[in-house]
Specification:
Layout lengths: L2 H14 L4 H15 L18 H4 L9 E4 L7 E11 L2 E2 L4 E8 L9 E8 L6 E9 L3 E11 L2 E11 L44 H5 L5 E5 L13 H12 L4 E5 L5 H4 L10 H5 L13 E5 L5 E6 L4 H12 L3
Parallel strand pairs: 9-10
Antiparallel strand pairs: 1-2, 2-3, 2-6, 4-5, 4-7, 5-6, 7-8, 9-11, 11-12
Helix pairs in contact: 1-2
Length: 328
């Protein structure tokens, strides 16, 4: 074998070590047949090896679609909290914040806003929502344009809204109904106050009417713990208890059961009777009210400083309460 053929075989076998198994076998056979001829052969066959990097030749990945879920469904003219979830086929988006721009879709001009919506992780770390304060200066169709860092980089989505002129739910800045809810002083047992299997007695010490004129901020949660077990409703009363444990001497904390006779229900909602407060606060006039919780923070003046439809995290509630505590 000539020195030239030896050099060809040496280079070829080095290439074989770098190729996949099938390609290696084919190249090895080619080298053997090419170099196995008589010593009189003077020409060396050209060996062309073409390799491709799949990472360089693969088609670009398709963008991951974002599915928005609106958590705040009762919207009216004025300023209010707007919350939403962002999901994909790969799971929940948990970026620190997203950018939200409101766009009016009706006739005429309306004030558009661009806000940052912070992400808030819910209990059990299964879900979480983005929330921000938005002001709608007129009723009608609106759209939220949302930008966020998704699984494959920056991405966008949209949510269409129907903003009412006003709703049956007490609005931010208004004085809520002077309601008389049940307390530990008006019943014989806690089972008459709540469907909660492990109730916190401190949430049933004062009426809403007395709390309004107490000179302290007040946190009121309307929910039915035993029958509202969704991630957007079930944990809310427990979260208010957490807040109460931090600020029990500085504010009032009240849970109002949605049903008037919790001790008689015992898992059978056909026996349930609605509390008068459900009607007084306007919940019964909105769809799916029984699957939601509503939490209100009242200022020292008794007016509603903030309202939270569906679940509100401890962080959100505490931020609002601290703002009211700082006011003279």
């Amino acid at each position: 074998m000539t020195e030239g053929r030896k050099a060809v075989m040496f280079r070829a076998f080095h290439l074989v070590q770098r190729l996949p198994l099938q390609a290696s076998l084919l190249l090895a056979l080619a080298v053997i047949f090419a170099c196995g001829g008589g010593e009189s052969a003077t020409t060396e066959p050209a060996i062309e090896v073409v390799t491709e990097d799949p990472a360089l030749t693969a088609a670009p990945a398709a963008p991951v679609a974002i599915e928005p879920i609106l958590a705040t469904t009762v919207l009216e003219v004025g300023e209010q909290r707007v919350a939403f979830l962002l999901t994909t086929s790969e799971g929940l988006i948990k970026a620190h914040e997203s950018t939200v721009t409101s766009v009016y879709l009706g006739e005429g001009d309306a004030a558009s806003e661009e806000k940052q919506a912070g992400f808030h992780l819910w209990p059990f770390e299964v879900r979480g929502s983005y929330s921000t304060q938005l002001t709608f200066d007129r009723a009608g169709p609106w759209r939220l344009d949302i930008e966020v860092d998704g699984p494959a980089g920056p991405a966008g989505t949209q949510i269409h809204l129907d903003v009412a002129q006003e709703t049956s739910i007490p609005a931010i800045g208004s004085i809520p109904p002077f309601a008389t809810n049940k307390t530990v002083f008006t019943v014989e047992d806690l089972s008459e106050l709540t469907t909660n299997f492990d109730p916190d007695p401190e949430l049933y010490q004062i009426t809403i009417g007395d709390a309004r004129i107490s000179g302290k901020p007040t946190v009121i949660v309307f929910a039915t713990p035993a029958f509202c077990t969704s991630p957007t409703c079930g944990p809310q009363v427990d979260t208010v208890t957490e807040l109460k444990d931090l600020y029990r001497d500085e504010a009032n904390f009240i849970h109002v059961e949605l049903y008037d006779n919790p001790e008689e229900i015992q898992g059978d909602l056909t026996k349930a009777e609605l509390s008068d407060l459900v009607h007084q606060w306007g919940f019964s006039s909105i769809p799916h009210w029984f699957n939601e919780s509503w939490t209100f923070v009242l200022g020292r003046d008794g007016r509603i400083a903030q309202r939270f439809e569906a679940f509100a995290t401890l962080e959100e509630l505490e931020e609002t309460l601290l703002a009211e505590l700082e006011k003279a």
